[in-house]
Amino acid sequence: MEIREYTVYREDEILSLYRSVGWSAYTDHPDTLRKGFENSLLTLAAYRGGQLLGLLRAVGDGYTIVFVQDILVFPEHQRKGVGTALLQALLDRYRHVRQIQLATDITPKTIAFYRSAGFRELSEMGCCGFLKG
Fold first, then answer.
1. pLDDT tens column, 23-39
2. Contact between 103 and 129 (Cβ < 8 Å)
3. Which residues of 44-58 are buried (b: 16+ CB within 10 A; e: fewer)?
4. What are φ and ψ of residue 45, in 5° steps?
5. Contact between residue 79 and residue 107 where contact means Cβ atoms under 8 Å apart
6. Could you tell me which of 53, 51, 55 has the C-alpha nearest to residue 7?
């Protein structure tokens, strides 16, 4: 598996990936999704033999804050280290950044995944989060 920057937006593979995990809020508005990619701090992709396995998209300034906006892996490649490799590549790249944040579904699977990567819930740090959506 190879992790590399995703620099050329390929709508067909991106929409296929987002559809595969049921993220229709994104696929229902493909132009907005493309603009989101264009304005992201960093997008990393995992490939094997030229085939996209998964993707991580981050926003922020890259110095004081990085927010993991999206991390998705095609269902047939989940639980095989793809998400972990993508997240670790981001953490390695931005090890100097004090705050790396994300928001995720509150399921045992996602909580376990992020805890295994060293993330803690905001409440554990005397903080809380707010979202307007």
1. 999 999 999 999 999 99
2. yes
3. bbbbeeeebbbbbbb
4. -130, 145
5. no
6. 55
